[in-house]
Amino acid sequence: YIGITLCSIPLIESIQNKPALIIVQKEFLLDIRPTNPCPVIFIRRDGEVIEIKTPETKLKRERVDCSTGRFQPIICSPHPEFEEDLHSARELLERIFTHFDPLEPFERMSKAIETLAKQDERFR
Known about the structure:
It is built from 3 helices and 4 strands, in the order H-E-E-E-E-H-H. It has one domain (2-123). The protein is of the alpha+beta class. It has helices at residues 2-13, 85-97, 104-119; strands spanning 22-24, 40-45, 62-64, 74-78.
């Protein structure tokens, strides 16, 4: 509730220049999609998690490789009700992926928060 309804949706609604794609690193954030006209894709590095297929597995997953080989492949998943988002997202991600690692900004933010936690007790 807090991550989606109170934070994410108002933040996205306040953006003046709407994005062509929203990339998230937490699966629960895919729930932004039903209230948003823009595709939302959950990404992670290929091999980061061992996948166990069960009847409850709802997310469609697709691997995207970096055409230059500079970056480790990623796995993309759309919201289960918007599987068609995967096609448009894949095209954008492939273009981005030739020059940039789409997971790098998430890793940079995580490191910054980790550093803050070490240096300032207010962030612990």
